[in-house]
What we know:
Number of domains: 1
Bound molecules: 5'-deoxyadenosine
Distance between the termini: 31 Å
Order of helices and strands: HHEHEHEHEHHEHEHEHHEHHE
Amino acid sequence: MKKSEIVAALNEKDFSHFYEKADLIRYREKGDYVFIRAIIEFSNYCSRRCAYCGINADNKNISRYRMTASEITDTAEAAVKAGYKTIVLQSGENHKEDKKELGRIIRAIKKNQVAVTLSIGELSYNDLSYFKECGADRYLLKHETSDTDLYRSLHPDGNFEERIKCLRNIKKLGFEAGGGFMVGLPGQTIESIADDLLLLKELQCDMAGIGPFIPHPDTPLSESGSGSTELSKRAMAIARILLPKANLTVTTALGILDPKERDSAFHCGANVIMKKITPDEYKEDYCIYPARFDRTDIIKDRREIERIVVQTGRRPI
Ligand code: 5AD
């Protein structure tokens, strides 16, 4: 699809034809399986001040934590026992992070024959390469927005070119690369969402997460409105059409705004869902956006997600 076609599609009054097409492609490429991934938010230390993010360095209303190595590996092991095949390790971007220790954690988790995904921000080529050697399989780094002016205004500590360079390095090193962006950022246009989608294609992302922006009270964007769940689903459907083989995640943000939208997203091209398994004592301090925090029971929660997946007519894996 060309940019003008994507813009026209996103603006369409009746989008059902695109949803059907995305769902057919999803079925052809992925069957009825839905991958359920476990995410451990192992640290909320962050040196960046991204204007939308609740764990940005300026937010003094949260306690900062870092799980110990054994807390992380024990949590991962419990997830493996519950049936998860992928462990996602996510944290704020913290360049004081002990690389060697994280390397040992990755090696320990890999002994369980599961995939390890990292989502720890922008890293140098050398650091990425080190974690690849340690056994990390995949890396998530959303580009957030392809509108370079908007990118600059939201990210006082980063720049768009560096982020894209990092994504290209992730690809080059042989990680499965996960990209994505937010929908409904203040000032974002439909045209720039079309560019976001084309960028995912240009980067040949293996995975993508596209979800609505949700304002967090302790950020500079606290007064902004939430992104549209409908537009987020439309963008996801176009991503499925552009990248037929990609693994597309139903973002948690979509489910927070509306659980029904989360479930319907499985019919708009999505084939992946993530479940937080961060221990209760930490999870409230990992609030990227406001959310309800239920108590974690790794086995019960996995069964509940499996039930939801089955209810949408699909097969959990
Ligand atoms: N609303 C929605 N998504 C957000 N993220 C960060 N802050 C918000 C927010 N307020 C997303 C970003 C980031 C991912 C970990 O969470 O896309 O890459």
